[in-house]
Design brief:
The structure is a single chain. With about 325 residues, the protein is an alpha/beta fold. The chain folds into 2 domains: about 160 residues, Bordetella uptake gene, domain 1 (D-Maltodextrin-Binding Protein, domain 2, 3-Layer(aba) Sandwich), CATH 3.40.190; about 120 residues, D-Maltodextrin-Binding Protein, domain 2. About 45% of the residues lie in helices and about 20% in strands. Strands 1, 2, 3, 4, 7, 8 and 9 form a 7-stranded mixed β-sheet that branches. α6 packs across α11. It is elongated. The structure holds D-malate. Keywords: Signal. It holds the Pfam family TctC. Belongs to the UPF0065 (bug) family.
């Protein structure tokens, strides 16, 4: 009996090892939980190409939208942990969502095998070009007096634009009308067309339009100005020091990957972020490339745990204070 068990175990381990050795044998799906063209999609496509080169199989982007990104992340979390489904999550789906999204079907800190941080994405307060205020102070005054007549775009409860927008509204005491989109890519189109008034969004989505003058940027919510947007003041310079917030995008897999498969994905992302073209693109768009200490699965797991712990009380009190 023992002999048969040993043979069975050895053949299982051999098969397991063989699977990992030949991984990947077919294209890998990277679920992006927001609409194409938005910041999450942009970061995903920047890293997917060099990852494909390293892995020898195409990393194919699949946009699965809705519910502030939780539809796509839930679906990806329930996929087989075989390395053929990964996802691009972020500070919203894996940090803010538990505080704001009732009945979340995954636990950011337990339902995934973290692969690694892909990019830091500072938050910018942007408005339609026709917005009359010339500075953040004037914009906030108009926002408070305008009340519900002002429309604020976001990508669904718990998304980055929603959570950072709710925080902004709470700090300044504004009550705009929230307008939901399947991503801030489509929201930006409406902002450029003047169909929606403002939003708080990730720099990698809005930097080209700010530079091109098709939308207004009142401030960036980081301690220092962005080298990509040198004329945009920080929130501190603009008189709103309490509003300092930055987002991030990161690659996850469903929980339970074979160890060697996970190692290959971690190495592929690491190589992608060292690819000169990918690094340049992220930096050009105002994003930041992870420092060594921020890279890899262990650092990402700790980041998720910190972010959930940080955002839950902040957002719950923001909503309570400004229902
Ligand atoms: C997007 O990719 O559309 C954004 O990440 C949505 C959001 O989280 O605001």
């Amino acid at each position: 009996m023992r002999r048969a068990f040993a043979i069975g175990l050895l053949s299982a381990l051999a098969a397991f090892g063989a699977a990992a050795d030949t991984y990947p044998q077919r294209p890998i799906t990277m679920v992006v939980p927001f609409a194409a063209g938005g910041p999450t999609d942009v970061i995903a496509r920047i890293v997917a190409e060099p990852m494909s080169q390293v892995l020898g199989q195409q990393v194919v982007i699949e946009n699965v939208t809705g519910a502030g990104g939780t539809t796509g992340i839930t679906r990806a979390s329930q996929a087989s942990p075989d390395g053929y489904t990964i996802m691009m999550g972020h500070m919203g789906t894996h940090g803010a969502a538990p505080a704001l999204f009732k009945g979340l079907k995954y636990d950011p800190a337990k339902s995934f095998d973290p692969i690694g941080l892909a990019a830091g994405t500072p938050i910018v307060i942007v408005a339609k070009k026709a917005m009359p205020a010339q500075d953040l102070k004037g914009f906030i005054e108009g926002l408070k007096s305008g009340g519900a007549s002002i429309n604020q775009a976001h990508a669904g409860v718990g998304s980055v634009s929603h959570s950072t927008g709710v925080l902004f509204d709470s700090i300044v005491g504004a009550k705009p009308t929230l307008v939901v989109y399947r991503g801030t890519g489509p929201a930006l189109n409406d902002l450029m067309a003047g169909q929606v008034d403002f939003m708080t969004d990730q720099i990698v989505n809005v930097a080209p339009q700010i530079a091109g003058g098709t939308i207004k940027a009142y401030a960036i919510a980081t301690p220092e100005r962005s080298p990509s947007l040198p004329d945009v003041p920080t929130t501190k310079e603009a008189g709103l020091p309490d509003y300092e917030v930055s987002a991030w995008n990161a690659v996850f897999a469903p929980k339970g990957l074979p160890v060697d498969v996970r190692a290959k994905l971690v190495a592929a992302l690491d190589a992608a972020l060292k690819d000169p073209g990918a690094k340049r693109r992220i930096l050009e768009l105002g994003g930041t490339v992870p420092k060594d200490a921020e890279a890899g699965p262990d650092a990402l797991q700790k980041l998720v745990e910190r972010e959930v712990a940080r955002w839950t009380p902040v957002l719950r009190s923001a909503v309570d204070a400004n229902p």
